[in-house]
Amino acid sequence: ELNAESEKRKRHIYDEIIKKKLGDSITLPEKPLSTEYIPYSGGVEPDLLHLPTDDDPVNTDGTSMFVKPITDYWIHSEVSLPQGEEMKSVNVVGRSKDADGSVIGTYDDDPHLNTMLYNALQCFTMLY
Fold first, then answer.
1. Average pLDDT value for residue range 101-127
2. Mean pLDDT score of the chain, rounded to an integer?
């Protein structure tokens, strides 16, 4: 089937079209390729981009919607904690809370003064 005359003719035509458009290793194309960017639209208008109108969106309690506290960056991360003479890898799963549901500890920009407590899991056991 690959050696049939009709298939050879198809491949030859295909090769000639490519050579005419892009050239080959010895000759360059007859005219240079355009470097102008023309975005593809497909004949369909793109959907309009709807941006929020509020410049500083906040939740009902007054906290910013898009800015996470720095303390939340620890959640879902893997950290190494000293356990006796060894370092154990644990996954931080959330902030520790007391019986009333309040977060235990206070945040401070200085990591040495930060007293926030987190729940961490290692091999499906809770570490404190």
1. 76
2. 77
